[in-house]
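Extended Data, panel c. Modelled sequence:
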Amino acid sequence: MVRQLAPSVYHQVVLYLPQNTLLLPSLLHLTLRVTSPSDIPHALPFLNSNIKHIDLSIRNTIPEAASYLFSEMKARVPKVQHLALSCDMAMATFEESLLAYITRLRSSLKEIVLDRYCLTSGMSLRLAQTPSIEKISTHYSNRAAAQQNGSTGMWISHQPNGWSRLKKVALASNLGFTSAVSLGVGHPRLVQELQLTIPISPFNFHSESELRCALVNISRTYVVLESLFLDLLGPTSVQDSISFDTLEPLGACRSLKKLFIRHRNPVQLNSSQLDQLLHFWPGLRAINICVDPVHTNQSARGLPIRVLAIFARHCPKIEHIGLQFDDSVPSSVWNLDLRLDSLKTLHVGWSGVGDVMEVASYLAELCNTRMEIKFGDSAIIPYSNQRAKEVEKEGRWQEVGRMFRAFARARERIIAQLQDRDKGIRWWQIRKTPVEDVVEGSKEEEMEDQSWASSLSDQ
């Protein structure tokens, strides 16, 4: 059964159809690209009442054609749950027909994605009055459309009884970070997820003080916030970084489960400051802060990897940690109760690593064998003159991963045996016990563990 149809198929199919024929009545997802008025009649046979997801792009056409399309959609596609719209025309020329269609979807529409300049005051007001809306997203569009729409930015209308189910907000803005946040939503106490993006552009400069002000607004407004994603790759001063003073207002967000921040500069944070922040977020499941900065400097070498013990103390159920680490040698945990058994991914970005064996041994004390180490980031590639160093770092982290898995497997078997012999065994005894004297398992596992022990003793 066909449920999704590529735009390239449209014209080939409709050429041979009788007029008013309905095609693919089971179609649920429609992607439609309108680049001329003649495209609209070709699209009509695919509009049926079962469609739940529409991705619509309107380019190089006339307002009358767009208005006609929305009037047809109002009659033919009344149960859409997800609507994505982008256009390069002035919204005023077809806004009335579009708003009428939004009204038609008031009981079904759950998510809408718009060009930033399509979120006019009229659109915002109508969406605020759509009780089914759970998520609203905006993304960047060209400046020609902005000028045609007469809009300098986006609007989120404040309505006393509006946005009754809105839980997720994703906004892109070049108005300055503070402006984007201060627009707010009608019922911010319901919003659980907030995504704010400042794309790379010379017009998107922001400072640390603006960022702190924005986070103060977030902490005061979104009191039940669970997920915060800040993509701040727009230009900023080398001196402006994510610091404790910047993040400290988020301590008021006690329900926070996910925190992701991308910034051009490294994070300025020490172990004690991280301890203070994590104290406020016991339910944290994922954190990723400046793991892949574009700029680096000597004053921000990263956090020592021993801060993982702080996560084990405050957030034992965390599943993802992404931080920039320095190359210091970690000390032993010395506490069997400090574990990160739920940790699935440790993202180290472009971090260096000092003593490979010590880092691997430290990780084995905290994590189970299922934890994976992720190095680098596909979105930000180091400059060519740095590439050789990053390749060397990546190789050392791969070695850490191999050693960690061998150590973790050995320790898991040791603990399983010693728990039956002595419930009060201490971790230092485990570290002092020769692996080959206590490990019993398959011959392959014994040979691998002994091989690792032999290679480490030679270093």
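The mean pLDDT is 79. This feature is highlighted in the accompanying rendering.
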